[in-house]
Specification:
CATH topology: Rossmann fold
Distance between the termini: 31 Å
Structural class: alpha/beta
Shape: globular
Low-confidence stretches: 1-12
Radius of gyration: 16 Å
Strand content: 15-25%
Largest sheet: 5 strands, parallel
Number of domains: 1
Number of helices: 6
CATH superfamily: Flavodoxin domain
Strand order of the largest sheet: 2-1-3-4-5
Bound molecules: flavin mononucleotide
């Protein structure tokens, strides 16, 4: 089934959409991953089926710029299949030297822009400093635009992330938890509108 096919139930209602979280930290345990899990819970509560892929576990090789991405080994094909199967994505990264991680960029470079085109994307980032992950978020937004994805205005930047304990359920302040939950719910909401054909951003080209 095409990833664009609407999921209609017997009475014509939309059954569900898939929202995939992509965690861009190679660290374990990772606060970024935990933040994505909270956002995915928000997507679930909004009716989405969710999944998560962690670049630390994905076993991806480096992108070598080959023209045919289909010839990369199985972990790349698995990663791409998960992206292709999703109608919405929640992408998160720690801020590394005012940017997002090389591991995440590599994972994105292994994909074709057609894997992301027209998908609804929510972004989150974490930084150890006072300004959070604003630079990483802006860079992710630019790259997503380059891949044809539709990035929601709402995003979550988490500052002083070293104060968070990734193994603790109460990892973030309640306000941050609420923003993460809202991020997931919004991705699910707009992905559903796309799947239902109520909005259709496919094929809209740059002018
Ligand atoms: C190589 C490296 C560079 C970093 N650069 C920044 C930075 O520029 N700004 C910042 O706020 N935090 C920076 N940090 C801190 C991380 O963003 C922070 O520890 C983050 O929470 C790690 O997320 P994780 O637990 O998901 O790996 C850096 C950490 C590393 C390892």
């Amino acid at each position: 089934m095409s990833s664009w096919a609407p999921w209609f139930g017997a009475r014509g209602g939309i059954l569900s959409v898939h929202v995939l979280g992509i965690s861009g930290s190679m660290r374990g345990p990772s606060a970024t991953r935990r933040a994505i899990e909270i956002a995915l819970k928000g997507a679930q509560e909004a009716g989405a089926i969710t999944d998560l892929i962690d670049v630390a576990e994905a076993g991806l090789p480096f992108c070598d710029g080959r023209l045919n991405e289909d010839t990369y080994p199985a972990p790349v094909q698995r990663f791409r299949a998960m992206v292709q199967n999703a109608q919405g994505l929640i992408i998160g990264s720690p801020e590394y030297h005012n940017g997002y991680t090389g591991a995440l960029k590599n994972a994105l470079d292994l994909c074709s822009s057609s894997d992301f085109e027209g998908k609804m994307v929510g972004l989150l980032g974490l930084g150890g400093g006072a300004i959070g992950a604003i630079n990483a978020l802006n860079q992710m937004r630019i790259v997503m635009r380059g891949m044809g994805a539709w990035v929601l205005p709402h995003q979550v930047s988490i500052a002083y992330s070293q104060d968070a304990d990734p193994e603790n359920d109460q990892l973030f302040r309640p306000q941050i938890n609420d923003r993460l939950t809202k991020l997931g719910a919004e991705v699910a909401k707009f992905a559903k509108l796309m799947a239902a054909g109520i909005i259709d951003v496919r094929g809209i080209q740059e002018v």
